[in-house]
Each structure stands twice: as structure tokens, then as C-alpha cells.
Amino acid sequence: MKEITRGGSLMRLRGLVKKEFLQIARDPSSIAIAFLMPLFLLVLFGFGVSLDADHLPVALVAEQPTLDSDDFFSSIEGSHYFVPRRFLNMASAEEAMREGRVNAIVHLRADFAKQLSSREGADIQIIVNGVDANTARLTQGYLQGVWVKWLDRRAKAAGRDMVMPVKLEERVWYNADVKSRNFLVPGLVAIIMTLIGTLLTALVMAREWERGTLEALLVTPVSMTEVLLGKIIAYFALGTGGMLLSVGLAVWLFGVPLVGSFWILLICASLFLFAALGMGLAISTMARNQFVAGQIAIVGTFLPAFLLSGFIFDIDSMPSIVQFITHLIVARYFVSIVQTLFMAGNVWSVLLPNAFALIVMAVFFMSITWRKSKKRLE
Measuring CA to CA, which residue among 308, 354, 47, 340 is closest to residue 194? Predict the structure, then answer.
């Protein structure tokens, strides 16, 4: 009798999984969220969004142009970081900054050449538009770098070494090209999986309540556990497909290096996907309306994953209370894992604690779903 029951249960589960896949295939919105949305976000962030400062418009003003001032300005014009424009006076340069046509002003006084040959050295005035603090700091640093390289080239042309009290030797680990794309694209995998696992699952479950599909299932011998397992299996496969698409585009289209193990990434992505599915199913048990479920999923999962997971903003730079809140965001742990695997490799001291946190989160949300899901209509 038990074997018949088990066989019937497996047959019902197989039928439920098939029903979910058929429903996904017939629902254009599910396909769009699972495959078109990842493609759109990857192209948007990979090509359109950059935290790098490049081709910055800069005003160049020399009160009295000389060979030295022209040589220094030429070094700025030869840098790919800047798009320089020469102005005859400070008034026109300041007007250009007020109008937003330039981000910075490099001002050389009339006695620049004379001061350059003196023991004290010459002063350069740099005025930076500080509305965007990040771009302002980068602009200032780039201009200082051009100034130091110009002085070094000038000293070598005169047959002497440039004397500096401190010699800085820079070495960048893990992202030697210092491209923000290599940082953003891996973290975007977590955002995409949050969309598929949480938002899509919550909307689909709420839609079935609205259409009465679940009510029809509840009057059959199918148990609520079998219904949930059918959805978990189907949307786990869909989420895995979206993850593979995202990783493939990250590596082959955007050239982001995957230094760590792909199989470890797949295992950790599976843990995160279980947690995301648990959140989506938990939301659907509380909200049986698509609009309400969508709002809860966006406000409660997608926006925190976007803003508080370390995907764009550094968690260590946040206030202490916000840093504490980020420990409640599931995507925080997967973003740390995926960025480590892509850029640094298999760093177990990072991977294991975050993977354990994902297991805890998955068990927590799945438990809530199983407790709240009962085979009744009210």
C-alpha cells in the first residue's frame, strides 16, 4: 500500500512539474523575466553603466602662455581621461563650469614658467566641480598623476632625477585593469537571480490564486507539499537557466574573468536560488493578489538586493546601523561569493561563511513557506 502511495505521489509530482513547465512556456511574462530581463540588465550595466571616470571635460587656462605651459597642457590633452578645452581667461572657464560644460579647471598663473625654475617650484590651481563627489575625487587624482608624470619627464629631459620625498609603487590585485564592469557584472548575477527566484515566483503563485488554478488543485488528492515541490523544481530549473545565461554573457560578451571554480559558483548559486524561491513562496502565502505580491517582492527583496548587498555601494562605507541591516539581506552573501569567485578565486575564508549563511536563509524561508501553506481555501 505504501509503495502504491509513493508511486502515486511521484506520478503526481511529475505531473505537477510538467504542468509548471507548460504554464511557463505559455506565459510570455515568465520567459521575459527569466531570460529577456537578464539580457537587458547585463547589456545596460555592462555597456551603459560605469563607475569609471573617463573622457572628463576639463578647462585649461594659462594667464600667459609659454612653452612650459603648452607642454604641460599637451600632457593633459594626451591623456584618455580628459577632454580638454583651452580658455583665454578664468571668467570664461568659470562660466563653462557653472553651465556644466566642464568638470574641472586647471589654472596656470602668469609667472608659471618663472616659478617652475625656482627652488620653491610652481603652483597649479585646480578647481573641481564637487557635485558628484566620486567623479571630483577621481578628476583630482588623475590631474595630480598627470602633473607628477610631467615633472618626471621634464627632469629626465634635463638629465636629472626628480627628487620626491616618497616614491609610490602601485599594484592593483584582482582587477588589474581597474574596470568597474568587472565589479558590476558579477554582482548583477545575484540581482537577476533575485528577480527570477523571488519576484517571478511570488507573481506566479498570486496569479494562480487569482485565477482559481490552485483552488482546483486543492480539491484533488495532491498535497500542498507536492504543489510546492512542483513549483520549486520548475522555477529552480528556470533560475538556473537564467544564471547560466548571465554567467555566459559575463565571461564571453563582457570579458569578465572567472578566476574561481565554475562548479563552486553553481553550488552557491543553487543555495541562493533556494533562498530566493523560499522568499517568493513565502510572499505568495501572505499576498494572494499579483499587485500586492509584486510590491512586496520589489520593496522587500529586489531594492534591498540592489542597494544593500554590496552590488554597487561598499557595505563598509555605510553607517553602522545600515551595515547591521545588510546581514538580513540574502543577496549580500551571494554577491560576496560571486564577486570573490570571479575576481579573486576560491577564497574559502570568504566562500564558506557566506555559503553557510545562504543555507540558513534557505532553511528559514522554506520553513515559513511550509508552515504557512495549508490545503485550505481561506
Answer: 308
Q: How many CA atoms lie within 13 A of 136 on its CB side?
A: 9
* Same domain flag for 240 and 353: yes
Question: pTM, whole model, 2 decimals?
Answer: 0.77
> What is the distance in angstroms between the CA of the first residue and the CA of the last residue of the chain?
32
Q: Which residues contact 161 (CB under 8 A, 6 or more apart)?
A: 155
Give a yes or no: residue 173 inside a domain: no
CB distance 330 to 350 below 8 Å:
no
Residue 65 phi, psi dihedral angles, 5° rounding: -60, 135
pLDDT of 5 higher than 60: no
Q: Is the pLDDT confidence value at 10 over 70? A: yes
Residue 378 located in a structural domain: no
The cell for 163 is: 627628487
Question: 224-229: long-range contacts at Cβ-Cβ below 8 A with a sequence spacing of 24 or more?
Answer: 224/373, 224/374, 224/375, 225/370, 226/9, 226/12, 226/13, 226/16, 227/16, 227/373, 228/281, 228/369, 228/370, 228/373, 229/13, 229/16
Instruction: Kindly report the backbone phi and psi dihedral angles of residue 21, in degrees, each rounded to the nearest multiple of 5, phi listed first.
Output: -65, -40
Nearest-angstrom CA–CA distance, 63 and 88: 7
Q: Phi and psi dihedrals of 86, rounded to 5?
A: -90, 135
Q: How far does Cα 143 stand from its chain's mean position?
A: 28
Q: For residue 87, what is the domain's CATH number?
A: 3.40.1710.10
Q: Which of 26-40, 59-73, 183-197, 317-331 has the lowest mean pLDDT?
A: 26-40
Mind listing the pLDDT tens digit for each residue in 126-156?
888 887 777 788 888 888 888 888 877 877 7
Domain, as residue range, for 127: 56-157
